[in-house]
Structure formats: structure tokens, C-alpha cells
Specification:
By secondary structure, the protein is α+β, with helices and mostly antiparallel strands. It has a four-stranded mixed β-sheet with strand order 4-1-7-8. It has a four-stranded antiparallel β-sheet with strand order 3-2-5-6, with no helix packed on it. It has two helices and eight strands. The chain is 24% helix and 41% strand. The chain has a single domain (34-137), classed as Immunoglobulin-like (Sandwich). The longest helix is centred in the N-terminal third of the chain and has 19 residues, at 2-20. It comes from Leyella stercorea DSM 18206. This is DUF4369 domain-containing protein. Pfam families: DUF4369. Residues 34-129 form the DUF4369 domain.
Length: 138
């Protein structure tokens, strides 16, 4: 009887585990690059810049720029750093909104007069940062 129960449980478990395997050909491949979609509320005209900072409070390098049209902007890139790194979206008047640059689609919302209060989501570290912001402000 014990042998029969053990075999039955083993058969059920193997069926369960087999059902959990995924067909890698059908699975959607993760995005290798990044796509940042931004929305600026309030009146904003001009460009925004994707900025990398070398070290804490170090020199800033503008990596990319784009025109804001109807309050929207988008950055796309094919490569991301191996480890998630904080970059910034910079306004024409040098306000900064922090963002973790990592593979995937990232969505940002910010006010034209207060970039620092931006809301960012879409990738693991940006979601965690947003959760941290929500916990510390509310």
C-alpha cells in the first residue's frame, strides 16, 4: 500500500512539474534595450535630456535629448549598463528627475515645475523606487 501511494504521489508530482515547464520558443523574449516614455503635466516647451552623472554629485554628461511634444517625450536605446544605474531626466532649466536605466519599458510622469517629484514605473528598480516614494510620503 505504501509503495502504491508513493508511486501515485510521484506520478502526480511529475505531471505537475511537467505542466509547469515553458516552451521557450513561445515565450516572449525580454527587451534588451530601454524605452522611456514620459508625460509632463503643466506648461512645458523645449527639450528634455537623458543625463548620466559620474559619481555622486560628479560631472553630468548629456547622453541623449528629445523634443517634448504635447507634454510627451520618449527615449529609446539598444544597450543598458550591466548593473542598474541611476540616470536623470533633465529639464531645460536643469531640474532633475531620477530614473534607474535598465532594460524594459519605463513610464514617467512629472510636473513641469517639479521634476524631482516624478513618478516612475515599469521595471524592477523603478517600481521599487516608486514604492519607496509612496511609503515615505504617504
Amino acid at each position: 500500500m505504501k509503495k502504491w501511494i508513493t508511486q501515485s504521489v510521484g506520478l502526480l508530482m511529475s505531471g505537475f512539474l511537467f505542466g509547469q515547464t515553458e516552451n521557450t520558443q513561445e515565450k516572449e523574449q525580454p527587451m534588451k534595450g530601454y524605452e522611456i516614455n514620459g508625460l509632463i503635466t503643466g506648461k512645458y516647451t523645449g527639450k528634455v535630456y537623458l543625463v548620466k552623472e559620474d559619481g555622486m554629485h560628479g560631472p553630468q554628461t548629456k547622453v541623449d535629448s528629445c523634443e517634448v511634444i504635447d507634454g510627451r517625450f520618449q527615449f529609446k536605446g539598444d544597450s543598458v549598463p550591466e548593473q542598474s544605474v541611476i540616470y536623470f531626466i533633465q529639464s531645460h532649466d536643469e531640474q532633475l528627475a531620477p530614473i534607474f536605466l535598465e532594460g524594459g519599458q519605463i513610464n514617467m510622469t512629472m510636473r513641469a515645475d517639479y521634476f524631482l517629484g516624478s513618478s516612475t514605473k515599469g521595471t524592477i528598480n523603478n517600481n521599487l523606487w516608486r514604492l519607496h516614494q509612496l511609503q515615505t510620503t504617504g
